[in-house]
Amino acid sequence: MSEETLPGVEAERSPRIVLHVDMDCFYASCERLREPGLRGEPVVVGMGYESGETFGAVATASYEAREYGVESAQPISQALERLPRSDADTDGTTGDESTSGEVGHYRSVDLEFYRSVAAAVKEILHECADVVREVSIDEAYLDVTDRTGWQRAPDDDRTLAEGYARHVKQRIACEVGVPASVGVAPNLSAAKIASDHDKPDGLVVVEPGDVREFLDPLSVSSVHGVGPVTADRLSELGVETAGDLADADPSALRSRFGSRGVELHDRARGRDDREVTPTGRPKSLSRESAFSEATADREAKRETLAALAEDVAARARSRDATYRTIGIKAVLPPYNVNTRERSLPGPVDDPDLVESVALELIEEFDDSAVRKLGVRVSNLSFASGEQARLDGWDSAEEAADGGATPSRDSRSRDDEGRSETSRGQISLDDFESQR
């Protein structure tokens, strides 16, 4: 989509338009992407259910599995008691058969695969917003104030901002194949609460002027930055809802919680002046296209790949980016992901080279049926200056407290913001540290 402002949107406008994009049960969604037969079935991603494994914990559970009491960070033994493992998983089959909901499909954590899917989502987000704040592998804030507006579309009750958010959701679903919940609001904290309000695959818009009305009836734990410990302390003051917090005496909150109490009071009233601060430039650019059904037609594959290569090279040029690596992705049924790449002696801006290298690399799959193809350029350099360091996905708490990276101890308390575990999924960093 063009980076130009949508028709009818004026150049000068306020307030800010923030999208909070939260991938639903992300690890489980990735496993369903690889095994479509798992859709609608209880899926548990974790370690320790195979013999010989010493560490056992749930990384994430699908909503279907959560109905049986399976939760993230739960001991795998407890998960198996509540939701026995499907025989289909133990006899070597793919798990495509229906299980009537009485057993679950257990899958081992595949960090690299999840990162590859997250990278594809991240590229879409960077295309859809000038400012993106990545706060975890499955969560990001977007400032789209310069892309859309709060005005109503002609002959439509919906705002342009809602239409733009729907566009972002649809791109993620169509191009990557995983669901996302999106919250739209005039500030960060309200956008995050909105994205949590109608999961999974939800879209909630909170317009300026409606934030307080939206927040008031919600539990105080819904306020961004209020974890279980803070919620308990607020309950001692008779504060149970966001509306209670908004109506509380700011001086009493300051006395009990310090300056943070006033900050939470402001958020409950819909006030949050924090800007969406970017985490850096993308490390790669790519484009993918899926066939309506797997095809072994050599010319169809080459024609698709050539178009993808042209698009990716044009996007790199539009961003004043050069690249040192050119690669392809070929997805074979059912979801066998194959990547090939070629490194160059130095950074280049050469669309013809991108196409020729991509077409050479795809020759390995000339005789294979392919369901999806992709082209990627990586190891990017930017003419506007040295590329910003982007070493993964920052913690959700870093965005909550304005950018300071908390220690692991502070994350465990969850008073500075919600941890990945409380959002229903262990972070990749935490999971790696336990392996």
Characteristic terms for this protein:
single chain; 435 residues; alpha+beta; MutS, DNA mismatch repair protein, domain I; Dna Ligase, domain 1; 5-stranded mixed beta sheet; globular
Give a description of the structure.
The protein has 435 residues and is an alpha+beta fold. Among the domains are: 26-110, MutS, DNA mismatch repair protein, domain I (3-Layer(aba) Sandwich); 284-382, DNA polymerase, Y-family, little finger domain (Dna Ligase, domain 1, 2-Layer Sandwich). Helices cover 36% and strands 20% of the residues. The protein has 17 helices and 13 strands. The protein has helices at residues 26-34, 63-66, 76-82, 87-90, 111-128, 160-176, 188-197, 211-215, 228-235, 242-247, 250-257, 259-268, 298-318, 351-362, 396-400, 408-413, 428-433, and strands at 18-23, 43-47, 57-61, 105-108, 131-136, 139-143, 180-185, 203-205, 284-295, 321-332, 336-348, 370-378, 381-382. It has a five-stranded mixed sheet with strand order 5-6-1-7-8. Strands 9, 10, 11, 12 and 13 form a five-stranded antiparallel sheet that branches. A three-stranded mixed sheet has the order 3-2-4, with helices on both faces. The chain starts with 17 loop residues before the first strand and ends with a helix.
Compact summary:
Helix content is 36%, strand content 20%.
